[in-house]
Every structure is written in structure tokens, then in C-alpha cells.
Hints:
Elements lengths: L3 H14 L21 H14 L7 H12 L5 H10 L16 H11 L3
Helix pairs in contact: 3-4
Amino acid sequence: xxxxxxxxxxxxxxxxxxxxxxxxxxxxxxxxxxxxxxxxxxxxxxxxxxxxxxxxxxxxxxxxxxxxxxxxxxxxxxxxxxxxxxxxxxxxxxxxxxxxxxxxxxxxxxxxxxxx
Length: 116
């Protein structure tokens, strides 16, 4: 909400410190449990762990465990999903294939029951 007082303070900051002073400043708040310097390595680890799987996909709990084990960063599952969003990773994907799935048996089943 912008008030006349906010406008006066912004104008005063501009005249005293220049154009850069009117942009939003870094605000206080809780810092990420995962250090900024570790984010790229964490992203790479998630992708690598997913690629190692022969089926299925990593869940929020799996990623939560990775953060805890490798970076001593304790997150809730919801916190993990917020972190993934913040670091530019989307964890929405198509339904994965079960590791024990038999594509040939599935096709035979489809052919057998498609006539009904």
C-alpha cells in the first residue's frame, strides 16, 4: 500500500542517495537452509539420482533425504517443493513407468481387450 508518507520517504532517499536507493532493498528473513553455493551441486545431484533409477521417480521425501544427508539441511516435504520452485526446478512430470512393467504384456492386454 502506498501512502503519502511512503512517497515522501522514497523521494527523500532518491535525493540523498540517488536512483539506486529507490529500488527494493534486500530484506531480512529466514535464510535458506541450503547454502547458495551448494544449489547447483544439489540440482545436479537430484538430476543424477533420478537418472540412476530404472523406473519410478524421486519423491519429495527422497529429495528431503538427499538434502539432509549431503548438506545437513533439514526441510519438510513442503519445504523441499518450495525450494525446488525457488531454484527453478519443476517436479511435475508424466506418470512414470514401474520398474517391473512388461511393455509386451501390456500391448497384448490392450489388443485382447480392445475388441470389447
